[in-house]
Amino acid sequence: MLIDLHAHPSPAKQDGRAIISLSIGDEDFLSSPLLKEGSTIPLSIGLHPWHVDEERTAQACPDLIPWLSLPQVVAVGEAGIDRLHGGQMELQLEVFEMQARLAAEMKKPLIVHCVKAFDEVIRLHKTRFPHEPWVIHAFRGKPEQARQLLREGFFLSFGEHFNDEALRLCPTDRLMMESDESTIGIDTLYARAAILRGIGAEELKEQVSKNIKSLIKYDQ
Questions:
Q1: What is the CATH number of the domain that holds 170?
Q2: The pTM is what?
Q3: Taking 80 as the threshold, does the pLDDT of residue 219 lie above it?
Q4: Helices assigned H by DSSP within 170-200
């Protein structure tokens, strides 16, 4: 049962319950055992905004296409905009839109990394990709920001750090959970979130698993 939308590689998270995120900008990307033939661990692959530069921008699209075509790659990203740690904004926007286009063409959800750039992300979704499923990963925003994103059709994925009220108000069918880079286990995060939502942890897992299955195509 897939219950962890977004996790980074570690043996503890490769139990088939998590979608593992890889960036083609990582130095060890090509050597990842998760890319070997026969691997069945579900993946998301993209170019992280921290890795965007002029050289990678030119190569991002042709480099990504063969990896996104692998059967175990169920989502694109994480892709997005980061005003604090990313490259030049113009380049980040270019690469983000390119990955959004690939996600739409391949009919895969887009996992969005967004830091202090929600206006740009919302604008691009609204004007170019209004019907495509985009998930804001590791959402930490306040309730009003959550409401704005939900009105625009986004899914929200909550990790270790989140606003309690934002998590409570998120509709059941738009809610995701993730461990990201946290050392806290996904089961612990579910237990905390379930208490805030007034339901059992297993019920919440079933709901989120249903949401993930509604977005991805994965027959392993």
A1: 3.20.20.140
A2: 0.96
A3: no
A4: 186-197
Whether residue 220 is contained in a domain is answered as no
Order across the sheet with 73-82: list the strands.
Answer: 4-7, 18-23, 43-46, 73-82, 110-115, 134-136, 155-158, 175-177
> Taking residues 131-144, what's their average pLDDT?
98
Structure tokens at 76: 């694109």
Whether the Cβ atoms of residue 11 and residue 51 lie closer than 8 Å to each other: no
Q: At what angle do helices 186-197 and 201-215 cross, to 10 degrees?
A: 110
Residue 178 CA, distance from chain mean position: 9
DSSP tag of 85: T
The total number of structural domains in the chain stands at: 1
**Would you say residue 134 has pLDDT above 80?**
yes
- Residue 147 per-residue DSSP state: H
Share of the chain above pLDDT 70, in %: 99
Quick one: which of 120, 59, 60 has its CA closest to 134?
120
Answer for the pair 112, 147: CB distance below 8 angstroms, yes or no.
no
Domain limits at 56? 4-215
- For the cut 90, the answer to whether the pLDDT of residue 217 exceeds it is no
